[in-house]
Amino acid sequence: MTDLSSASIDAVIAEKNMGKRSADTAKISKAYADAQGEMVEPIMNGVGYHKNRYATMADIRKVTRPIAAKHGLSLCFSVDAAENYVATLRHSSGEWFSVSYPLRFTTDERKMTAAHMTQQSTLTYAERRCLLMIWGVSGEEEEGEGLPPKEETKKEDTGNGAIVTPIDESF
């Protein structure tokens, strides 16, 4: 068995978990830290299948893009040969780093009729996850924090066959 030094183990962990980076990272690191210091959590306007709230990509971009641009940062996305979705954060100095998210496309022939929709959905989800990973913002509620139960809407019979919903004037 090969004896690995802690430095080489750290390098392997960094390569697998943190992605790749440019040789120099001093400028991007400062810009990234400054940008993250200004980031706020995006509004969670999306509602998932299980009634969980989440931040849409539009909401995430609305929070992150202006701050990133202010600090000379931009993002670009690609798919690598190993079918990982790769988000690369670039700085105006030319420095960069990337993170990746594994794609899981279906190989089930029964589901291939909608393969293009499945692939687009997978790519959209991966892009959203990469945006959240890069910026370190929360994009969904913790488990069990779904929407509260919907209140029953009160309706009144007007006597002429019409049913109306009374206006709440308490505010």
Termini Cα gap: 72 Å
State the shape: flat
Note the beta-strand portion.
15-25%
The counted number of beta strands is: 7
Percent helix, as a range, is 25-40%
Instruction: Note the main sheet.
Output: 3 strands, antiparallel
Number of helices: 4
What average pLDDT do the residues reach?
74
List keywords for this structure.
three-stranded antiparallel β-sheet; 18% strand; alpha+beta; single chain; 4 helices; two-stranded antiparallel sheet; 171 residues; disordered N terminus
Brief rundown of the structure:
The protein is α+β, with helices and mostly antiparallel strands and 171 residues long. The chain contains 4 helices and 7 strands, in the order ααββαβββαββ.
Description of the structure:
By secondary structure, the chain is α+β, with helices and mostly antiparallel strands. It has four helices and seven strands. It has helices at 6-18, 26-38, 57-70, 115-135, and strands at residues 46-47, 53-54, 73-79, 84-91, 96-102, 156-157, 163-164. The protein has a three-stranded antiparallel β-sheet with strand order 3-4-5. The chain has a two-stranded antiparallel ribbon with strand order 1-2. A hairpin with a 4-residue loop joins strand 4 (84-91) and strand 5. Helix 3 (57-70) crosses helix 4. The longest helix has 21 residues, at 115-135. It starts with 5 loop residues before the first helix and ends in a 7-residue tail after the last strand. Residues 1-17 have low confidence and may be disordered.
